[in-house]
TrEMBL record:
PANTHER family: GLUTAREDOXIN 2. The keyword Lipid metabolism does not apply. Keywords: Disulfide bond, Electron transport, Redox-active center, Signal, Transport. InterPro entries: GLR_AS, Glutaredoxin, Glutaredoxin_euk/vir, Glutaredoxin_subgr, Thioredoxin-like_sf. Gene3D superfamilies: Glutaredoxin (3.40.30.10). This is Glutaredoxin-C4. It holds the Pfam family Glutaredoxin. One of its GO terms (biological process) is cellular response to oxidative stress.
Length: 136
């Protein structure tokens, strides 16, 4: 009986630990989801990026060309970067970077951002005047 009781207590402790772990993971995901939403809502331009990514560098160059300073979240410099990328996947349907948002609206990745720049849509969304520009 004593051995059976110890096994039951051990199983109960394992189940409690698992429940706590699941709670903290969902709480963590929830707070990261809030971070992503607040970041997108709080800044005119947001780029979720990775420092070494050539496509991210290209997207950031577009805003430099427009004399605009985006709020950049470098996912590879954060311990929770992969989890943020998971959340972005749920929001935009893609896991790739960069993911660019203007005034809370998802613009897309690098190619979408460059296309919006070249067509003048990006300047329009940002409410800025631009001169003719060369292709990036």
């Amino acid at each position: 009986m004593a051995a059976s009781a110890r096994i039951n207590v051990t199983m109960m402790m394992v189940m409690i630990a698992l429940a706590i772990s699941l709670y903290w993971d969902s709480a963590s995901a929830s707070s990261l989801g809030e971070f992503v939403a607040k970041t997108i809502d709080s800044h005119k331009i947001v780029i979720f990026s990775k420092t070494y990514c050539p496509y991210c560098k290209k997207a950031k160059a577009v805003f430099k060309e427009l004399n605009q300073v985006p709020y950049v979240v470098e996912l590879d410099e954060r311990d929770d970067g992969s989890k943020i990328q998971d959340i972005l996947t749920n929001i935009v349907g893609k896991r790739t970077v960069p993911q660019v948002f203007i005034n809370g609206k998802h613009i897309g990745g690098s190619d979408d951002t460059v296309d919006a720049y070249e067509s003048g849509l990006l300047a329009k969304l940002l409410g800025i005047e631009t001169e003719d520009h060369d292709d990036l």
